[in-house]
Specification:
Strand order of the largest sheet: 1-6-2-3
Strand content: 5-15%
Oligomer: single chain
Number of strands: 6
Shape: globular
Radius of gyration: 17 Å
Helix content: 40-55%
Largest sheet: 4 strands, mixed
Number of helices: 6
Order of helices and strands: HHEHEHEHEEEH
Distance between the termini: 36 Å
Structural class: alpha+beta
Length: 146
């Protein structure tokens, strides 16, 4: 999938406007941030790994699936992230989070198959700054201010 967009210019639109990137949503931004951190080996997946990282104070961002069917898991992760002042980002589906953190098989065409549910993931190090990372951090900050 290419990140470039082919656009035909019309007479009354400035070229700078056409070259601008499309609006980012939180799902694609989080997927890109998680992929970059996963490549570098800075993602903890699952309750046990995430609790160890959160308790040690090495976490920079915690992602929790709202579809988690065990309320004790959610309370534990929320309280640990609050105690350690780690931003908490909630996503709707655990299957989607599992796909983003690499808990799936890819077929020959690159489509995910056999996706495993993931209730919680923690990013230990973001790596280099990116527009997606800034978008995620701003949205977490705005949610905390409300």
């Amino acid at each position: 999938m290419s990140d470039t967009v082919d656009v035909v210019a019309t007479g009354d639109v400035a070229p700078e406007t056409l070259a601008a990137a499309p609006e980012m949503d939180s799902a694609t931004a989080l997927a890109k941030v998680l992929k970059r951190a996963l490549i570098q080996g800075h993602v903890a997946r699952g309750l046990h790994e995430c609790c160890k990282v959160l308790d040690a104070g090495h976490a920079q961002l915690c992602i929790l699936a709202q579809s988690c069917n065990e309320p004790n898991f959610s309370r534990l992760v929320e309280s640990l992230s609050k105690e350690k002042n780690v931003p908490l980002f909630k996503v709707a589906e655990g299957k989607q989070l599992g796909e983003w953190v690499g808990l799936c098989k890819l077929d020959k065409t690159g489509k995910p198959r056999k996706v495993v549910n993931c209730s919680v993931a923690v990013i230990k190090d973001f790596g280099p700054n990116s527009p997606e990372l800034e978008f995620i951090l701003n949205s977490v900050k705005q949610a905390a201010d409300e």
